[in-house]
Amino acid sequence: ASSLPQSRRGAASKRRRMAFAMSSARSAFAGQNLAFKGRNTGSVARVSVVVQAKKVCDLLGTKRNKANTVSFSNKKNRKWQEPNLQNKKVYWPQGQRWVTLKLSTRAIKTIEKNGLDSMAKEAGIDLWKLPFEDARPQRLQYLEENKGKVPVAVNPRAMKNPEKIAASKKQPKYPVYEEGGRIVWIRPGMEELIFGAKQEEAAAAPAELKVTLQQ
Q1: What is the 8-class DSSP label of residue 198?
Q2: Separation of first and last alpha carbons in the chain
Q3: CA 92/CA 115 separation, integer angstroms
Q4: Of the candidates 110, 104, 109, which has an alpha carbon nearest to the alpha carbon of residue 61?
Q5: Residue 157 has what pLDDT?
Q6: Which end of the chain is more exposed for a tag (fewer CB within 10 A), N or C?
Q7: In this model, does residue 152 exceed pLDDT 60?
Q8: Cα-based distances in Å from 130 to 50, 60, 82, 178
Q9: What whole-number distance in Å separates Cα of residue 153 and Cα of residue 141?
Q10: Using CB atoms within 10 A of its CB, is residue 127 exposed (0-12), middle (13-18) or buried (19+)?
């Protein structure tokens, strides 16, 4: 063995060590039943993640403040002082609309002093992209004239031939507002089925007795 080169002697000793380790492992587990735990394939509960919006004023950028609660023994515990934020509809005269903003009470007072348009430019906010309520005179007039009517887009496939329209037995449906604000599509003559029953229920309901006392 001494005549073998050093590299071959190292490889032979490595093979002997591996053979000894395998034989010892076989003797250690001899006569034992090995059971492997399989992967759990049961149903996994879904985790719902609730994401809260940042409590920051849209115009002034007011955030919560880090502070301490101090006990009688002068022990300090960390707490957060949240800003007084309010969801407000503010009238924007230049756009003739009411825009919805998340404002602090300080920002509400500052709007009355400096104006909404100038404060929005300083904060880098585009007021045209905010949720709004239209307050133009034309829009208010349209709502007053068409009170209770459901706006419907023009149907490009509607029948235009007057002769076919007169000969047709089909009556087109039209939308109406039901009680509660839901939109229902009905045909002409079906008004009694929806609104007549409600009127009968209102008439059959016992009238309330109101008594006013005067000295």
Answers
A1: H
A2: 131
A3: 9
A4: 104
A5: 86
A6: C
A7: yes
A8: 24, 17, 24, 30
A9: 19
A10: middle
